[in-house]
Design goal:
By secondary structure, this protein is an all-alpha fold. About 70% of the residues lie in helices and about 0% in strands. The longest helix has 27 residues. About 30% of the residues are buried.
């Protein structure tokens, strides 16, 4: 029988090699040959799946984002809750917690930041949030305020943008060892408490 090839697993192996090389030496030091060596495969196999280094870097970024999204979805599913505030906190905490997917994304994002200056695609992937993500987060903020007995304020989209910008900044601090995940979580939770208001009444916006 012919050997069954798991193409997705092969791509994942190559992407993991990119993550490891970029974190160790910076994205500009990553080459197709180094990826092949790191992954323990031939250059031909790398080039079979990726025609250029740029294509491989973009896939590595996309898969890092997907890994974080999977972590969030799993956390929400495990929590078994429909509470908007709980879901909001789980989503935001995913990038600053001790989970490996979040740390890997932040470290790889830092390594790829230089490329983002000249590569619009990389810049878009690394952006704090796109319109769909911000709209989803804004909806959670509005629902969480109502869950606490308050009312939406009409600033939810801006509030969502600020939340993701704060999380990205805190995530960088955690990735670089400037803060522990616990210290970053305290900052984020304080901001969310101020943002959502005290139960039964609106708090002054942070």
């Amino acid at each position: 029988m012919p050997k069954i090839v798991d193409h997705e697993q092969r791509r994942k192996r190559l992407v993991e090699a990119v993550w490891a090389l970029a974190v160790r030496g910076g994205i500009e030091q990553v080459t197709l040959r180094k990826v092949a060596t790191e992954a323990g495969v031939s250059m031909g196999q790398v080039q079979h799946y990726y025609a250029s280094m740029q294509a491989l870097i973009r896939d590595a970024l996309d898969q890092a984002v997907q890994a974080v999204n999977a972590t969030i979805e799993n956390a929400v599913r495990t929590a078994g809750t429909t509470s908007p505030e709980t879901i909001l906190r789980l989503c935001l905490h995913a990038l600053i917690g001790p989970d490996e997917a979040g740390r890997r994304f932040m470290r790889f994002s830092l390594a790829a930041a230089g490329r983002a200056v000249s590569d619009p695609t990389t810049a878009r992937v690394l952006a704090p949030g796109d319109d769909e993500l911000l709209a989803f987060t804004a909806g959670l903020i509005a629902a969480a305020r109502q869950e606490r007995g308050g009312e939406p304020r009409g600033t939810e989209h801006l509030d969502a943008d600020i939340c993701w910008s704060l999380v990205m900044s805190l995530g960088v601090d955690v990735a670089l060892g400037y803060r522990t995940p616990e210290a970053a979580a305290r900052v984020l939770d304080h901001h969310l408490d101020q943002l959502l208001g005290s139960p039964g009444r609106d708090a002054t916006p942070a």
